[in-house]
Design goal:
The protein is 74% helix and 0% strand. It has 473 residues and is mainly alpha-helical. The two termini are 13 Å apart. The C terminus is likely disordered.
Length: 473
């Protein structure tokens, strides 16, 4: 490592991957509950399993973003982290709060959890993705403030690069928009209106800045392409992402009552949203083709390029499939939505976290050349198992959603099937999804195994310092 304080990223990455494993396990539980409705009931009912599944997704990605930031900011700023001690303290606070919250979901009824955490003093619970008790939300804000202070002070005293400035802008936006989770109006339209200011403006707004910064940093390191070239691409990509993403929030307003102009604004700007993801794909391939070095960590390059492609497919193509108002009228809340959500979250955000882990973890373990070749081969196998199985899940859910629309929503009231009757017709798709989910779990286990692969001779070779002219830094 260039700076000793970069090592604080390691526990963040380890805990993030542990939570990722938990998210996948609960995803499999949900998948089985779609088929066997009373599976694990009453111990883990469907609504609890789903809540844990989605909350683990958000929390493990946040841990991943924080670890990525602590690793790359000192190197970009060319100075030690402002306070490694604060970074370690915030890790334990966030980890304890997250673990306690998930245990609360599993061990006590949700209404009882609200009473125990005194949610009545400032009611914020009960909304999808924002189910956390108010006391947990306050803890998240405290952690976010300490985190941004630590990172901001590091950037202020060091070098100001485009990567750092884009990253800190995304992180500040993440914290600011989370504050709307404390606003819980009685009017359902207002509630949903501002709920999207958290959920949409995270995943289709400021998170894209974080993703772009991490991708740019990784490509600089593994390709050796001039920083100026990558930074120009980054500027254009984030500008397009913000322009389309912020106004594109309107594609969620079809069903909650705002003015009809949102039908046009939401549709038009949502149709533009695939553009920055396509540009990101072109950007990644072009940087790899123009690389000036052959980095020993080849699998990190695979993750970087794979992230760009899968993000374009999941967030771009599958987002566009059902975002236009005349189409969304029929597909809203169907399995088409689930298909988009799975591929977008995995392709854009899970994969970018695994990209920076793949690049930085070997360095933090004293392997500047990357993991041994046998370990990289195992990781490449895991990469393809997870990517192919996620594409399988997405295609299966897309077909299920199209069939659902044909059975339940296109026919008139007299001929449309009831919801549960439609679900019975979708059972073959749910079985197929479960099989792909098991393959994904096997891929994740293979990924974990790659951390421990390699003979003593291979490990010793990977620990030799690499020679570099310095132009790639």
């Amino acid at each position: 490592m260039k700076f000793e304080s970069q090592a604080v990223a390691k526990p963040y990455f380890i805990f993030a991957l542990a939570l990722f494993a938990g998210q996948i396990l609960f995803g499999l539980i949900i998948g089985l509950q779609y088929i066997i409705g009373d599976f694990l009931f009453p111990y883990i009912p469907f609504n609890v399993a789903r809540m844990v599944h989605t909350n683990l997704l958000i929390v493990w990605l946040l841990f991943g973003f924080m670890g990525a930031t602590y690793y790359l900011v000192p190197e970009e700023a060319d100075t030690e982290l402002h306070s490694p001690w604060l970074a370690k303290a915030l890790f334990w606070i966030f980890a304890a709060a997250g673990t306690a919250t998930v245990l609360g979901y599993l061990l006590v009824p949700y209404a009882t959890l609200a009473e125990l955490t005194m949610n009545d003093l400032l009611p914020t619970m009960g909304r999808e993705f924002l189910e956390q008790p108010t006391i947990t939300k306050i803890g998240i804000v405290i952690v976010a403030l300490g985190f941004i202070y630590n990172v901001g002070m590091t950037i202020l005293k060091g070098r100001k690069t485009v990567v750092n400035m884009v990253l800190i802008t995304g992180l500040i936006g993440l914290a600011v928009f989370f504050l709307f989770s404390f606003y819980n109006p009685h009017n359902l339209v207002l509630d949903k209106y501002f709920w999207w200011w958290v959920v949409h403006l995270w995943v289709e707004g400021v998170w894209e800045l974080i993703m772009g910064a991490i991708l740019a940093f990784t490509l600089i390191k593994v390709t050796g392409v001039d920083r100026e070239v990558i930074e120009k691409w980054l500027y254009i990509i984030i500008a397009m992402a913000l322009i389309s993403g912020i106004i594109g929030t309107g594609h969620h307003y079809y069903w909650i009552g705002p003015g009809e102009y949102w039908l046009w604004l939401g549709s038009i700007f949502s149709a533009i949203e695939p553009v920055p993801f396509f540009m990101m794909t072109v950007f990644a391939f072009r940087m790899v083709r123009q690389r000036r070095i052959e980095h020993g960590n080849k699998i990190a390059t695979t993750w970087a390029v794979g992230t760009a492609v899968m993000a374009f497919l999941g967030a771009g193509v599958w987002g566009f499939i059902h975002t236009l108002a005349p189409v969304n009228f029929f597909t809203h809340g169907s399995q088409v939505t689930a298909a988009h959500g799975h591929l977008a979250f995995f392709g854009a955000y899970a994969m970018i976290v695994m990209t920076i882990i793949s690049y930085s973890m070997p360095i933090m373990r004293g392997r500047p050349q990357g993991n041994p070749e046998s370990a990289q081969k195992l990781e490449r196998m895991a990469f393809w198992m997870m990517v192919i199985s996620m594409l399988g899940i997405t295609l299966t859910l897309t077909a299920a959603g199209a069939y659902q629309v044909a059975l339940q929503r296109l026919p008139d009231d007299a001929n449309a099937l009831a919801f549960m009757a439609t679900q019975d017709k979708l059972m073959p798709f749910y079985w197929t999804r479960l099989v792909f989910g098991l393959v994904f779990l096997a891929g994740l286990v293979t990924y974990f195994a790659s951390f421990f692969a390699g003979s003593k001779e291979e490990v010793a070779a990977s620990e030799k310092p690499e020679s570099c002219c310095g132009s790639c830094s």
